[in-house]
Write a structure and sequence with these properties.
Structural class: mainly alpha
Radius of gyration: 26 Å
Number of strands: 0
Number of domains: 1
Length: about 240
């Protein structure tokens, strides 16, 4: 007898993958825009390289710190809600029991089945609290190592992305040549990155590729045009 196999496809990107996407997206775009802007205002590749490295260092630290604080904020919020749920289970057991019943009713349980499920949860205080955290508040226990891991991953990904648009300026090429090579290698990197990122977001690879490349191009073009305009008035 033929049996059809059902394969579910869902977004399965871990927190680490998300951190890489965040860091790499900004790492490719911001230093690229800065280099493009400076290329329209100065006439020395080394100046662009030094400024780009300074921005890349500052940006990676800022992004990493942001990731660290966000993860710590999630931990603090979880602990605060956990303590509140523990108090409510002890001080307001009738109210919390009814909330458990209401949660099971949403799954279609009624009558004896509802009461048995409710009693199974409320019979164990820790399981009761865990149930309320997940089903009432939608909170999962965060990984205690998440904050540091997130900071390092985002910061490292930012640097990895920032190296690409700045690399041509490190080969002592004329500014115009370095600028053109920076455009080429960064657009290629943005396109490939967008296609890979699309795999984790459920978007088609083609759509993800051109959207990411378009955003980077607009940012760099705006920075270059503004720098050219300011340099003309400054002259």
């Amino acid at each position: 007898m033929y049996q059809r196999t059902h394969v579910e496809q869902h977004f399965s990107g871990s927190d680490t993958v998300r951190d890489i996407v965040i860091g790499m997206s900004d790492g490719l775009t911001v230093p690229f825009a800065l280099a493009a802007g400076l290329s329209g205002a100065v006439n020395n590749s080394f100046v662009v390289l030094v400024a780009g490295i300074a921005e890349m260092a500052a940006g990676s630290i800022a992004m990493g710190l942001g990731g660290y604080l966000a993860a710590r904020g999630e931990e603090d919020h979880y602990r605060s809600e956990l303590e509140r749920e523990r108090r409510e289970v002890l001080e307001l057991p009738e109210v919390e029991t009814e909330e458990v019943r209401e949660a099971f009713r949403k799954y279609g349980l009624e009558g004896e089945a509802l009461e048995k499920a409710t009693q199974a949860v409320t019979a164990r205080p820790q399981a009761w609290v865990d149930f309320m955290m997940k089903n009432e508040l939608g909170l999962e226990k965060p990984d205690p190592k998440r904050a540091l891991s997130s900071a390092l991953t985002i910061g490292g990904s930012y640097i990895a992305g920032g190296i690409i648009p700045l690399a041509p300026y490190a080969f002592h090429l004329p500014l115009e040549t370095a600028f053109l090579w920076s455009i080429v290698v960064t657009l290629v990197a943005l396109t490939l990155f967008g296609a890979v990122k699309a795999r984790f977001t459920g978007v088609s690879a083609l759509k993800g590729a051109w959207q990411t490349a378009l955003v980077g191009s607009i940012a760099a073009g705006a920075a270059y045009g503004l720098a050219r305009l300011v340099s003309r008035f400054g002259a």
